[in-house]
Write the structure tokens for this entry.
Amino acid sequence: MAKCSFCSSSIEAGTGKTIIQKTGKISYFCSKKCEKNLFKLGRDPRKFKWAQ
């Protein structure tokens, strides 16, 4: 089981999305909401109550 790179929730096998950046960093996401908040909107997960 992996953890979401934004909200730290656990991701079940066969679900979610894995993104490998050019720098070699691997990011796991449970939903499009988390992916968009991190990459497109550039938000910090520590500032949101729903992100642990």
